[in-house]
Specification:
10 helices; Cytochrome Bc1 Complex, Chain D, domain 2; globular; single chain; mainly alpha
């Protein structure tokens, strides 16, 4: 009886538990780590690095893309829109953003690039319009122009995420 009371006074310790004294606890604790290096996969599959797009936002983004982006980037987002030939720098293939980034889709960088309001003028001119201003139409009584712009840019990013190819 005295041993049990002493254990309660000192607090519980796994080292004093009967299973651990017999070594079973060590075996149980090592099971999760046993498979860590034995799976044969050193890197997760590329598809798992691109987060799943929100289907509702991607649908809204598809409409915005057709309205604002397809004239340069093309309906398929590969850079072959009707206005592409008139540009000094050809529009990017937007279906390969993740492939160019090593399988990672840089959501915040893409959103910032689309927005364009935060780029420094010292970094040179940009042929792409500053969509943050264009997409900021106010919706009376519901939101400010900045909130509307962020929502639309997020929808565009979700749509671009849905187009990614390996």
């Amino acid at each position: 009886m005295r041993g049990r009371r002493d254990r309660r006074r000192r607090g519980f310790s796994w080292a004093h538990a009967p299973l651990f004294r017999r070594g079973v606890g060590t075996i149980l604790l090592s099971i999760p780590f046993a498979n860590a290096g034995c799976s044969g996969h050193s890197k997760p599959a590329q598809e798992s690095l691109i987060p799943n797009p929100d289907p509702m936002l991607a649908e809204v983004g598809a409409e915005l893309f057709t309205t604002y982006c397809a004239s340069c980037h093309g309906v398929d987002a590969r850079g072959g829109g009707p206005a592409a030939s008139a540009m000094i720098t050809p529009p990017s293939d937007l279906s390969r953003i993740a492939a160019r980034g090593g399988g990672v889709f840089p959501e915040s960088s893409i959103a910032r690039l689309i927005d364009g309001r935060f780029d420094l003028p010292a970094h040179g001119s940009r042929e792409m319009p500053i969509w943050g201003t264009c997409l900021a139409d106010e919706i009376p009584c519901f939101a400010t122009g900045d909130e509307v712009a962020r929502g639309r840019i997020t929808s565009l990013v979700e749509y671009l995420k849905s187009l990614q190819e390996p």
